[in-house]
Design a protein that fits this description.
Layout: E1 3-11, H1 16-28, E2 33-38, E3 42-44, E4 54-63, H2 67-80, E5 95-101, E6 106-107, E7 112-113, H3 122-131, H4 138-143, E8 149-151
Antiparallel strand pairs: 1-4, 1-5, 2-4, 3-4, 3-8, 6-7
Length: 152
């Protein structure tokens, strides 16, 4: 049985646009998983982070992987892309955040679903609204209206 999941993608080091496009292709190649929708690319200012602007997107997946297995695959893809975590919210070659996995509600040290801060970030909400408008409310969009974001 497959489950609908949403993953936010971001990068702000190196060729961020190419990295995000590559990540979308890599997500499509995960076992028992397929990409069923992808947003446009967006340029955004860092939020609670430093460094150059980010390139962001959101993808919808249909997956047979459970939330923890999918998260492990996301971390593996980040590592392959050279992701380092020298400090919280450091600039990054690739950031993959599991936003939702079906109706799962999980709160552990390694995984929180739905993603704890997704409603605070325009770079998540606007791309998510583009591909799954039923997942985002107008109130959520209004809450992040002061954040700089540009659809590419």
């Amino acid at each position: 049985m497959t489950t609908q999941a949403f993953v936010a993608i971001g990068a702000n080091l190196g060729d961020a646009r190419e990295t995000v496009e590559r990540a979308i292709a890599d997500l499509a190649s995960l076992p028992k998983t397929r990409v069923t929708a992808r947003s446009s690319l967006y340029r955004t200012a860092p939020v609670d982070a430093t460094g150059p602007d980010f390139i962001n997107a959101v993808v919808e997946l249909q997956t047979e992987l459970d939330p923890h297995a999918l998260l492990a695959e996301l971390h593996r893809l980040e590592a392959v892309a050279g992701r380092e975590r020298p400090y919280r919210n450091a600039p990054r070659t690739l950031d993959l955040d599991l936003l939702r996995h079906g109706d799962a509600v999980i709160e552990t040290q390694t995984l929180t679903l739905p993603h704890a801060r997704m409603n605070e970030r325009a770079f998540v909400l606007l791309p998510l609204a583009e591909i799954a408008p039923d997942q985002v409310t107008s109130e959520q969009i209004a809450h992040v209206a002061d954040q700089r974001i540009e659809r590419l």
